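queue> pop job 88
queue> type: inverse folding (structure -> sequence)
queue> payload:
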């Protein structure tokens, strides 16, 4: 028997109606007067026994049972203390599991990730765990697909818990992590992170800041269980989480090692330490582990030593690698093994050039020819007559850049050029991020003259800002050389200028930052300019590209990256950027969108942005705030975020902002949005408007499963 029949009988009994009939499978229900507190027309028992097929046409289509999940969620919204609440949340989750009962080509029923928060909280509350802090943290609990980890992240006198779980089979992010802590005599749950895989996330707790309190680390993949994924971390200050890595930092290759009751964070090349704000690269890591004696590990370590200006140590390391009896190394996209010892000798020659020792450089290349005459590196030495080269390092780089030979023949250039650094190639040693910090810069001599002497081009953009507060202005400019575009600030110090690569994610200058951040290669913009939008005396870089613009704003010792894509929906538009003066002396960044090549008109023609504490904030039109989690996640308006706002965040006002931005693609999505709009209105205290929307869906000439929902729900 269809659910509508059972509910019709229930309505008859409750309202005392005598004209109801159970033979009409789609009756026209009576129109009820609007009520500030609608009387529930369903019961937990009916909802638990209902089937998604009750809402499906014949033949069934994928996701047609979704109205049942919303009917249950709506009931829970209005009856949160129902004794069957946990069973009802579990029923919603089960509706999203892979099933063949609907006969669809895709076995996934529909997405129910929006129900994760309610389900996880219900599972947790049902356990009635203590909030008193235990002397020893209890062991983790596993309840089906949910793991509960006890901790005390905020350092108060109460126990905290982490809820980590996954909802298999959903098409979107299917796992989430929540932090539950005791606040004002009740449990408060907060979303931490979503992860897009079917096995959850790797969670580790331990002290990295030296305060004997645990920090939280989460590694989660964005491409399934075969990928490693980013590492996220938080420490707690004044009871609130603070990110341990700056936005934009590449943490995908970081590992966590427990040592003496603490956690050590490192990559294969760099060790990280807490600098009071972030975990930052602070020390070169010597090769260790089972592959520490391989020639690739020796080359990587030597490259790190070179970046630090420890040339003699780098050469000594490379001499050890050149003396290996087996120089086989993997390289290239096909993982071919080749003897890399010729590369070692080739690199020794480059480092000798960095030391301005031409005789030693020529000797290293002579050794290469003598030991490995058939190698491709030897061919490069012969073709470019390097054994007689007597010029500067910049001239040497330009010589090779004319043809850009791949020393390890067969290595794809695109892979090579986009690698943050490649121990087998010459190009990273010619990169401005390698060369500029290794030079001595005298602020008594104009920068342009020093660049000319070095043989590099310098494009000055501004000398009007004092970034470090020492009373002397710090020049800003660009080095565009060998096809590599790099923006720089030359900070004045007592010892001279200190080059700071503007797009690195770490505060101030980090000598090892080029081994630890992803923006080693910076795309050349169409135009670049220096601004001061917030009139605070600190500059911003404005880079304009075809499909986006980027603003790097100086705040708290670093440039913060703000990137705005010139897309509206799925369509690309161009935009003209202007600076709009404001009455308070600041400026707004104004984007005037133009029709695109297909003749489409942009939905938003005019957008304005303010700059606050390094962050670009849209002011016109006022945007929806969809930030979620502990600062790492941001979502665009979509049907998924509408569900999350309504049933995850319990924020009907936010749901009302989202729903007006969505454009339905068919009658099903139109009815779905109208139903969710109606529920948001009712939860927001606008019952009369909600009833009108539900009635329009219930009486629609073309019916869907949402029509049945509206008929029952009114």
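queue> result:
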């Amino acid at each position: 028997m269809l659910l509508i029949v059972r509910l019709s009988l229930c309505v008859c009994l409750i309202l005392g109606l005598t004209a109801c009939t159970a033979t009409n499978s789609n009756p026209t229900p009576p129109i009820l007067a609007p009520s500030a507190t609608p009387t529930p027309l369903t019961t937990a028992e009916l909802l638990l026994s209902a089937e998604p097929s009750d809402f499906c046409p014949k033949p069934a289509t994928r996701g047609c049972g979704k109205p049942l999940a919303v009917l249950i969620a709506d009931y829970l919204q209005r009856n949160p203390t129902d004794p069957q609440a946990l069973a009802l949340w579990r029923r919603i989750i089960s509706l999203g599991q892979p099933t063949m009962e609907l006969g669809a080509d895709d076995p996934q029923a529909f997405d129910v990730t929006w129900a994760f928060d309610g389900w996880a909280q219900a599972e947790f509350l049902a356990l009635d765990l203590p909030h008193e802090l235990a002397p020893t943290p209890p062991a983790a609990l596993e309840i089906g697909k949910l793991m509960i980890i006890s901790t005390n992240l905020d350092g108060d006198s109460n126990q905290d818990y982490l809820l980590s779980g996954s909802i298999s089979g959903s098409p979107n992010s299917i796992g989430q992590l929540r932090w539950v802590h005791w606040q004002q005599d009740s449990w408060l749950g907060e979303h931490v992170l979503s992860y897009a895989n079917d096995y959850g996330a790797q969670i580790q707790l331990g002290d990295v800041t030296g305060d004997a309190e645990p920090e939280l680390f989460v590694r989660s993949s964005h491409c399934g269980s075969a990928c490693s994924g980013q590492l996220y971390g938080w420490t707690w200050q004044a009871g609130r989480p603070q990110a341990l890595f700056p936005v934009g930092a590449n943490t995908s290759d970081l590992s966590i090692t427990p040592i003496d009751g603490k956690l050590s964070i490192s990559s294969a090349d760099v060790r990280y330490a807490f600098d009071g704000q972030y975990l930052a690269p602070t020390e070169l890591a010597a090769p260790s582990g089972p592959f520490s004696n391989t020639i690739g590990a020796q080359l990587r370590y030597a490259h790190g030593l070179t970046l630090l200006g420890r040339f003699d140590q780098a050469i000594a390391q490379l001499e050890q690698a050149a003396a290996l009896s087996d120089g086989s190394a993997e390289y290239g996209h096909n993982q071919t093994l080749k003897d890399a010892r010729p590369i070692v000798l080739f690199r020794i020659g480059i480092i000798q050039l960095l030391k301005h020792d031409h005789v030693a450089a020529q000797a290293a290349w002579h050794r290469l020819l003598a030991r490995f005459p058939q190698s491709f590196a030897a061919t490069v030495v012969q073709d470019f007559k390097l054994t007689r080269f007597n010029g500067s390092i910049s001239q040497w780089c330009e010589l090779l850049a004319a043809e850009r030979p791949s020393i390890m023949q067969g290595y794809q250039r695109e892979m090579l050029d986009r690698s943050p650094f490649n121990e087998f190639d010459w190009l990273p040693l010619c990169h401005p991020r390698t060369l500029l910090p290794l030079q001595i810069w005298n602020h008594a001599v104009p920068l342009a003259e020093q660049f000319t002497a070095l043989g590099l081009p310098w494009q000055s953009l501004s000398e009007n800002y004092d970034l470090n507060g020492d009373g002397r202005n710090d020049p800003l400019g660009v080095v565009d050389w060998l096809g590599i575009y790099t923006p720089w600030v030359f900070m004045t110090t007592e010892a001279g200028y200190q080059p700071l690569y503007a797009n690195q994610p770490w505060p101030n200058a980090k000598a090892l930052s080029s081994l630890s951040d992803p923006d080693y290669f910076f795309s050349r913009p169409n135009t670049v300019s220096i601004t001061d939008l917030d009139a605070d005396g600190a500059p911003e870089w404005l880079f304009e590209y075809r499909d986006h613009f980027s603003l790097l704003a100086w705040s708290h010792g670093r440039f913060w990256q703000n990137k705005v894509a010139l897309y509206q929906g799925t369509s690309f538009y161009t935009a003209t950027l202007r600076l709009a003066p404001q009455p308070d002396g600041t400026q707004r960044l104004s984007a005037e969108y133009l029709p695109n090549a297909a003749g489409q008109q942009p939905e938003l023609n005019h957008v304005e942005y303010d700059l606050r504490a390094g962050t670009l904030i849209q002011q016109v039109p006022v945007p929806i705030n969809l930030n979620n989690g502990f600062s790492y996640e941001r979502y665009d308006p979509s049907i998924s975020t509408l569900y999350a706002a309504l049933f995850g965040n319990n924020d009907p006002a936010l749901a009302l902002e989202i729903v007006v931005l969505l454009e339905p693609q068919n009658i099903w999505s139109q009815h779905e949005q109208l139903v969710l709009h109606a529920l948001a209105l009712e939860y927001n205290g606008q019952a009369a408007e909600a009833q009108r929307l539900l009635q329009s869906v219930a009486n629609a000439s073309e019916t869907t499963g949402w029509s049945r929902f509206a008929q029952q729900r009114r």
